[in-house]
Model the fold of this input.
Amino acid sequence: MTHSEALPQIAALDALDRAHLIHPVAPWRMHEARGPNILTGAQGIWLTDGRGHQLLDAFAGLWCVNVGYGQESVVQAAAEQMRKLPYATGYFHFSSEPAIRLADKLVQITPASLQHVYLTLGGSESIDAAVRFIVQYYNAIGKPGKKHFIALERGYHGSSSTGAGLTALPVFHRGFDLPLPTQHYIPSPNPYRAANPGDDQAIIDASVAALKAKVAELGADSVAAFFCEPIQGSGGVIVPPQGWLKAMREAARALDILFVVDEVITGFGRTGPMFACDAEGVDPDLMTVAKGLTSGYVPMGATLMSDKVYAAIADGAPKGAPIGHGATYSAHPVSAAVALEVLRLYEEGVLVNGQSVAPVFAQGLDDLMAHPLVGDSRHRGLLGALELVSNKASKAGFDAALDLPGRMAATSYRNGIVFRAFGDNILGFAPALTFTESDFGLMFERLKRTLDDVLAAPEVRAAL
Ligand code: PMP
Done:
């Protein structure tokens, strides 16, 4: 079928979408009026929409399709597993080969502290499981008072009923009665907006001091854990100084609270090494992963934990009593088979490719600092952002009425490129780890054109 033949069908889908499909993190009424961008295909770094428009995907779907689209061996792995054993429960004592092999593989490739794996269907469920396991842990070791959780301002830890309260972004709280009284935040380590930009040690020291102060305020016997992303993704790709993660890990240890690293975005080569923890030799008590685990081809995530946490929970329950946490699709064999193949692709060259093109990505972003709209360029590995400002000296943003993010999103779509335009004038980028130098050439050409087009509007120029 040609794309012009497909058009009437797209119009019908458009109407059905508006009528019935609730979209995640969307303004529902605005969506009804605006309608969906229906995607119909993808290959390599390219997305195709229902009008046959080709879009260069500079965001790997939703920072997940790290191996790019159209990896035939991944499709094969899923098909073979579906033929052989499409479903096996992990409940009670049932198991399946892909789930077992995946748990073993994850233990091998994650920090040495992590020895046990609970397989989920995504990041939110992994965070939710981590919280529940931590509550079990403290009850099991006879410290039931330790029930308060600390996370970072602007952090994102999913949108489960508890996880959305660890997330510290207002839209995930508004109308949902969050955060819970047990959820607390400390400032995020934001080099661009720090009191003394460039003084990395001061940024690290401030975070450590804030964590200590928050624990002191809540009482050391009340705090269970500190959750953080190594680089804050949905909060605007906030890249802390090197050494920050390690310092926070040591602070958590000294404060006798569990240290939970959320590598849902940063895992699987996104920042260079397999995990962001690896860059600083960090050994968390728990770790959450998802996204790149299956490169988004099917849903899967995982919650990993140390032997100390595992053993306390295992031995804390009455003898023979199940630990009451699980879902029908926990340890799904098809997802696990896909994850194993995706992990093989990372190890067979995708990770190395990502590392080798990262300087091209970094240079492309840094070069755009010369653009009148760009105040900051920040990146690690293939995770990066540009922050748009109306005044480079004062770092002032833009009047919300100007809707710069909306303009960037609409203009970029017209120019055939997709990235994330965050509400506070931050543009996020997470290209697939399979990008070549020439892919980046095209990406930055389209990105520059988009910035130029947005700047061409008289009302935007007037705001500078
Ligand atoms: N943690 C982090 C750091 C994330 O970026 C996300 C998703 N963007 C989540 C958790 C939640 O993952 P999911 O959307 O798969 O539920």
Remarks:
- The radius of gyration is 22 Å.
